[in-house]
Amino acid sequence: MNRAKAMQRAGKDVLSFAAGEPDFDTPAVVKDAAIRALSAGMTKYMPTLGDPDSRAAIARKLTTDNGIPNCTPDNVAIGAGGKHQLYVALHCLLDPPPPGQAPQEVILPVPAWVSYAPLSELAGGKVVEVPTGPASGFLASPEQIEAAITPRSRILLLNSPSNPCGTMYPPDHLRAIARVVEHAVKTIAPDLVVLSDEIYEKITYAGIPHFSIGSIPEIAERTITINGLSKAYAMTGWRIGYTGTSGDWGRKFIAAMGTLQAQISTNITSFIYPAIPVALRECDAEVERMRQAFANRAKVINARLAAIPGLKTSPATGAFYAFPNVSSYFGRTSPAGRRILTSLDLAEALLDEALVAFVPGEDFGGCGKDHLRISFACSEEQINRGMDRFAAFLASLR
Questions:
Q1: What structural domains and CATH numbers belong to the chain?
Q2: Using a CB cutoff of 8 Å and minimum separation of 24, what contacts does 70-74 make?
Q3: What residue ranges in the chain does DSSP mark as E strands?
Q4: For residue 322, what are the contacts with CB-CB under 8 A and spacing of at least 6?
């Protein structure tokens, strides 16, 4: 993304599909709420986990929209973006192992967002990958997850809708996973919890409803839900992430997050807080307008990718990513003489020779090394121009 921006500043006609952020502006009512708060002098320190009104608004949202039981304002933490909330949550859950002992394990279906593994490892955990692929819609089966659980299992980390795969777990699939977790806690992994990243929950368009695994009563108090306003409300730069939990255990966990967060960042920017209840209460129509735009873009890019010979694709059903398998083009040579042996080679050649920026799949884990991630958080006109260049470049490989 940064290289594409630098080339654009140098005057090159680069079409970038690298950024994981909506191309829409933040709704005006949200901006106005922050401006009013700033003008009114709301510029002082705030409580570490957020002001009472914002925490209450998020608790209502998690209860009403997501069905999470026993979610009160004390079950909510607010931090500097979803990544920050993941960092704090992982450090509260994981302990570096004593000398001679094995680390606690984080079960992670892959391909997965590039930060999950390093954040887990920074907190002292060992990542146990569960491989998925296009044949399963990039969904880990309950049987795979069950096989990955050991007495050292501490976290099952789920992301639906998925970055980078653009697919999502149906409700019945998540219920089956919940049964596996419930059984494992009783038999082999008493410390296991589910960490569910639902940052793309509002961006769905294939008839699969978003479902929060934290709404299942049997594991509600073993589920930590990470979310934020970045993607659905076009507020990536505002850095508003939040964590939601359930019941007494959840309140204790949020208090632990507060203890750690107080030593890292304390509160987010003070005059942003009044924008949170406004976004959650007043922006449903704006969110739906953006969702419809992403749905239309998904149709366009799904059709364009399906028409390119040699690509293997799973249609995007959530978030705003396509994740085609491009391995059939490995072993070929670009017009400029670059040998294409990996998705990184292909992405480099595309950027340098066709002025199209995609993200290579190596760092997503698992079969990601055979894929490119394409963000369609851009206009349909740009999607079509980019797909024209992509198809022409692939056809030029020898």
A1: 2-20+285-396 (3.90.1150.10), 31-282 (3.40.640.10)
A2: 70/220, 70/221, 70/246, 70/247, 70/250, 71/244, 71/245, 71/246, 71/250, 72/251, 74/251, 74/254, 74/255
A3: 15-16, 76-79, 105-110, 126-131, 153-159, 193-197, 223-228, 241-244, 321-322, 332-333, 339-340, 356-357, 359-360, 372-375
A4: 166, 298, 301, 302, 305, 313, 316, 373, 374, 376
Omega cis (within 30) before 97:
no
What pLDDT, on the 0 to 100 scale, is given for residue 2?
Answer: 84
Evaluate the omega torsion of the peptide bond into residue 315 and state whether it is cis, within 30 degrees of 0. no
Q: Which two structure tokens, joined as six digits, stand for 87?
A: 């960092």
Query: Which pLDDT band holds residue 348 (cuts at 50, 70, 90)?
Result: very high
Q: What is the mean pLDDT of residues 221-226?
A: 98
Amino acid residing at 119: L
How confident is the prediction for the chain on average, in pLDDT? 97
* Position 239 pLDDT exceeds 90: yes
* Residues belonging to the chain: 398
Number of H-type helices and E-type strands within the chain? 12, 14
